[in-house]
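Blinded run. Sample ID left blank on purpose so nobody reads anything into the name before looking at the predicted structure. Input follows.
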Amino acid sequence: MSERNKNNWCNLQKLARIGELASGVAHELTNPLNNIGLILGNALERLDGGSLDVGHIRQALEKGRGQVHRASAIIDHLRTFARTALTPFEPVAIHQVIRSAAPLVEAELRLPRRTVHEALL
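Blinded prediction complete.
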């Protein structure tokens, strides 16, 4: 198989996996977005109720920012995985690949009777 055919095959496999992961990614993005909505709603209720506690508002905003970072990280992992750039085949540290791919399948791993054991050397 030529190098070009290998790259095309890998890209097709990536696209197939992206389709399989779409519902898991949607679930993973829904969680931080819902959290952001709850955090901001709570902060607004406190402001509207006249209980302006700057410390509480700051804490709520920091939590919200953390959830934004969480959602951004999920998107970044997906973008990295989905890249179709032509790259030559080369040796990789497989444990790093697995660790960076784990957030993409995190929702799938939470299903009943699914267990992951890390025993990488």
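Unblinding after everyone has recorded impressions. Residues 3-109 form one domain.
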